[in-house]
Amino acid sequence: MKKTIIALSAILLTSPVFAATTTDNIIAEAHKGADTAKEKLHQTQHQGEELKLKSDMRLKAKAMPPAAK
Q1: What distance in Å separates the CA atoms of residue 21 and residue 29, rounded to the nearest whole number?
Q2: How many other C-beta atoms can be found within 10 angstroms of the C-beta atom of residue 59?
Q3: Which tens digits make up the pLDDT trace of 18-44?
Q4: What is the pTM of this model?
Q5: How far is residue 29's CA from residue 15's CA, in Å, rounded to a whole number?
Q6: CA dist., res. 25 & res. 20, Å (int)
Q7: Longest C-alpha distance within the chain, in Å?
Q8: Residue 46 class from Cβ within 10 Å (0-12 exposed, 13-18 middle, 19+ buried)?
Q9: Are 61 and 69 in contact (CB under 8 A)?
Q10: Phi, psi of 68 (to 5 degrees)
Q11: Residue 31 to residue 23: CA distance in whole angstroms
């Protein structure tokens, strides 16, 4: 009986350590996912800005008289 109680106590004492490790891993994975999402967002925003600039340049080029080109 004493050995069983000691074994159960040891398990209960170590379980928070396992839970903390698992939680840390989950948080780390969540941060990686968030970083990836942020990178994709920035890339998309940058592409949108580039397309807008190209579009503006084309509009300006069309508006220019042929002699100015």
Answers
A1: 12
A2: 10
A3: 666 777 888 888 999 899 999 999 999
A4: 0.48
A5: 21
A6: 9
A7: 101
A8: exposed
A9: yes
A10: -80, -20
A11: 12
